[in-house]
Amino acid sequence: MSGKGPDHTLIASGIACRRSERLLFRELNFTLSAGQALMLRGPNGSGKSSLLRLLAGLLPMAEGTLTWRGRPVAEDRAAYRADLAYLGHLDALKPQLLVRENLQFWADLIGATVPVENALAKVGLGPCADFPAQHLSAGQRRRFGLARLLLKPVPIWLLDEPSTALDAHGQKLALDLIARHQAAGGIAIISSHDDLAVGQVTTLQLGGAA
Ligand SMILES: Nc1ncnc2c1ncn2[C@@H]1O[C@H](COP(=O)(O)OP(=O)(O)OP(=O)(O)O)[C@@H](O)[C@H]1O
Fold first, then answer.
1. Does residue 134 lie within any of the structural domains?
2. Alpha carbon of 20 to ligand 1 centroid (Å)
């Protein structure tokens, strides 16, 4: 990934998010350059997932501006989306397909540059490649999500609770992947209730009651 460079900066200015009629947050600001991470913290319902969905372009911004590579994202959403990977709560697995088929589906969709077998092996799912996806455990499903991130290097990772359901080895794996992504110049924005030991990280506390 050619993630390093002066224009690889993500700037959020005065961002607000509304869900239904409720204003979840407003006047939210941050700047992230190549190699940096942002950890989203806050109680249940404070808006961490909503912020990640907003940054992924899946929710509209009520106010504010997002700037990537020196241009407002609103000017070229497709270019911005091509530069990010979003790991949400849902695993997006088709239960009747094999694990390898599920990943191949994603690989075809995004134009993967890494073979699915390699991505599965890196997250410890090589032996499960020919299982029907419905047989995967919760932690294995989370590993599948991490495998999706590895299919194609992109500069921005948006990770919603990446360590949920992972065992100690899986948590270390997730941290290693994030560290490698950052070392290659990637940006990571992560929501977590766990104390993940992420480097070059700034914490953004979201308030509000559950
Ligand atoms: N589709 C929706 N329509 C309306 N409100 C929603 C919708 N999805 C979530 N909300 C509300 O938005 C608020 C923020 O939810 P969100 O999932 O962003 O919080 P969170 O900080 O990620 O919570 P958690 O720590 O429990 O994962 C909550 O009050 C939730 O009920």
1. no
2. 10
Which CATH number do you get for residue 41?
3.40.50.300
Question: CA dist 47 to 14, 23, 63, 120, Å?
Answer: 15, 10, 15, 31
- Secondary structure (H, E, C), 102-145: HHHHHHHHHCCCCCHHHHHHHCCCHHHCCCEHHHCCHHHHHHHH
Residue type present at position 167? D
ipTM of this predicted complex?
A: 0.96
- Cα 53 to Cα 58: distance, rounded to the nearest angstrom: 5
**Is residue 113 domain-resident?**
no
Residue nearest to atom 5 of ligand 1 (CA): 19
Residue 179 CB-half CA count within 13 A: 10
Domain that holds residue 40: 1-83+157-165+191-210
**In angstroms, what is the span from residue 47 Cα to ligand 1's centroid?**
6
Q: Is residue 100 part of a domain?
A: no
User: Regarding beta strands 187-191 and 156-160, do their DSSP bridges make them parallel or antiparallel, or are they unpaired?
Assistant: parallel
Domain assignment of residue 77, yes or no: yes
Cα three-residue angle 184-36-29, rounded to 5 degrees = 145
pLDDT tens across 15-28, in order?
999 998 899 999 99
- How many domains, the chain? 1
Question: With a threshold of 0.90, does the pTM exceed it?
Answer: yes
Structure tokens at 146: 């991490």
21 lines ligand 1 (CB under 6 A): no
Q: Are 194 and 163 in contact (CB under 8 A)?
A: yes
